[in-house]
């Protein structure tokens, strides 16, 4: 029995921008760290270690935004968006002490945080963009915002991020888990560098020809961006799995649907209906992942071998800091 680490390196989703409007504070917990997110009155978002350097109160529980600082609920010490102590209300000078500041990026209403257990800075080219795709670029303005109408949030699931990521190479589960009429085919995959790119073709039941191509990119083990290229089913999605601690993860799906010219501002009912179905689609996979054990050396069928083996090898690079699989997740070493 081996274990699979819950502390991989990469960018991970920690929420949606609109959950933290200007002037608000939110407690978070990821990778076993207590964190506080707050947005200054000017709209700058910051994520810091949560516990005040004074006497350890959690800034996310009762802390208040004052200008570009979060004020501690216990004795009012203020910490700015760089993590520095900016004010002690009953003393002339602040202390030269900093709370750890976490690197974050906001992209199309999604908040990503960099995690490297070795403490290294964000690496160049590790975060793709669901709209800025080399073959299928699109203008984000042509799509409805994902939040709040086209998202799925599944907190505190006992799911390891790699299980979600391995779906990208798994063509044979569609028939069984999603009731697909035909098995899709893995058209190509490219494992160069930190972004996995794959194309999957979905065949029409009538003609058996490839009628829709799914362009998928994985960035690390907890982040998948996919494009469904189809005249009617066109959509883009960001699927993420972020470890909370050594046992659980928060999963999120963000769907971007193309704006309908008849109702470009307000998402019309037929799009809302598609958005609602995304929960069902997510559940079809999640019910498997929740109860799955990670099998270190699976017995592959011929159709699985190429994609799965390549993906497993590619995933290993994200565990470099902690060494290959160790941590909490139970692994069947068959
Ligand atoms: S514990 Fe934060 S100000 Fe005292
Ligand atoms: Fe799936």
Automatic annotation (TrEMBL):
Segments forming domain Rieske: 11-113
Q: Which InterPro entries match?
A: Cholesterol_7-desaturase, KshA-like_C, Rieske_2Fe-2S, Rieske_2Fe-2S_sf
Q: What is this protein called?
A: cholesterol 7-desaturase
Question: What Pfam families does the database record attribute to this sequence?
Answer: KshA_C, Rieske
Q: Per its Swiss-Prot or TrEMBL entry, what cofactor is needed?
A: Fe cation
Q: Which residues form the signal peptide?
A: none
Q: Give its localization.
A: Membrane
Query: Family per UniProt?
Result: Belongs to the cholesterol 7-desaturase family.
The pathway where this protein functions is:
Hormone biosynthesis; Steroid hormone biosynthesis; dafachronic acid biosynthesis
* UniProt KW keywords: 2Fe-2S, Iron, Iron-sulfur, Membrane, Metal-binding, Oxidoreductase, Transmembrane, Transmembrane helix
Q: What class of enzyme is it?
A: oxidoreductase
Q: List the catalytic activities from the record.
A: cholesterol + NADH + O2 + H(+) = 7-dehydrocholesterol + NAD(+) + 2 H2O; cholesterol + NADPH + O2 + H(+) = 7-dehydrocholesterol + NADP(+) + 2 H2O
SUPFAM superfamilies registered for this protein in UniProt: Bet v1-like (SSF55961), ISP domain (SSF50022)
**EC number(s) for this protein?**
1.14.19.21
Molecular function (GO) terms for this protein are: 2 iron, 2 sulfur cluster binding; cholesterol 7-desaturase [NAD(P)H] activity; metal ion binding
GO annotation terms (biological process): cholesterol metabolic process
Entry-linked PROSITE patterns: RIESKE
Gene Ontology cellular-component terms for this entry are: cytoplasm; membrane
Q: What is the organism field in this record?
A: marine sediment metagenome
């Amino acid at each position: 029995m081996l274990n699979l680490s819950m502390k991989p390196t990469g960018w991970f989703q920690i929420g949606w921008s609109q959950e933290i409007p200007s002037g608000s504070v939110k407690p978070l917990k990821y990778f076993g760290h207590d964190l506080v997110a707050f947005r200054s009155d000017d709209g700058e978002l910051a994520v810091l270690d949560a516990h005040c350097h004074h006497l350890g109160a959690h800034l996310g529980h009762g802390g208040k935004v004052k200008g570009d600082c979060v004020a501690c609920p216990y004795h009012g010490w203020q910490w700015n968006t760089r993590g520095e102590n900016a004010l002690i209300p009953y003393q002339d000078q602040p202390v030269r002490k900093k709370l750890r500041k976490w690197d974050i990026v906001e992209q199309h209403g999604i908040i990503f945080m960099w995690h490297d257990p070795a403490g290294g800075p964000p690496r160049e080219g590790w975060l793709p963009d669901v709209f800025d795709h080399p073959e299928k670029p699109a203008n984000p303005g042509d799509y409805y915002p994902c939040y709040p109408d086209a998202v799925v949030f599944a907190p505190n699931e006992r799911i390891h991020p790699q299980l979600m990521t391995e779906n990208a190479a798994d063509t044979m589960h569609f028939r069984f888990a999603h009731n697909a009429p035909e098995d899709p085919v893995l058209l190509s995959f490219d494992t160069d560098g930190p972004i996995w790119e794959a194309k999957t073709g979905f065949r029409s039941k009538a003609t058996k020809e490839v009628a829709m191509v799914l362009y998928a990119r994985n960035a690390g083990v907890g982040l998948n961006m996919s494009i469904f290229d189809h005249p009617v089913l066109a959509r883009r999605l960001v699927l993420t799995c972020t470890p909370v601690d050594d046992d659980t993860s928060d999963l999120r799906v963000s769907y971007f649907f193309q704006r309908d010219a008849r109702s470009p501002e307000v998402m019309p009912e037929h799009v809302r209906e598609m958005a609602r179905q995304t929960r069902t689609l997510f559940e079809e996979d999640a019910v498997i992942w929740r109860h799955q054990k990670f099998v270190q050396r699976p017995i592959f069928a011929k159709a699985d071998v190429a994609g799965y083996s390549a993906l497993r090898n590619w995933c290993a690079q994200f565990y470099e800091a902690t060494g290959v699989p160790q941590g909490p997740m139970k692994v069947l070493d068959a």
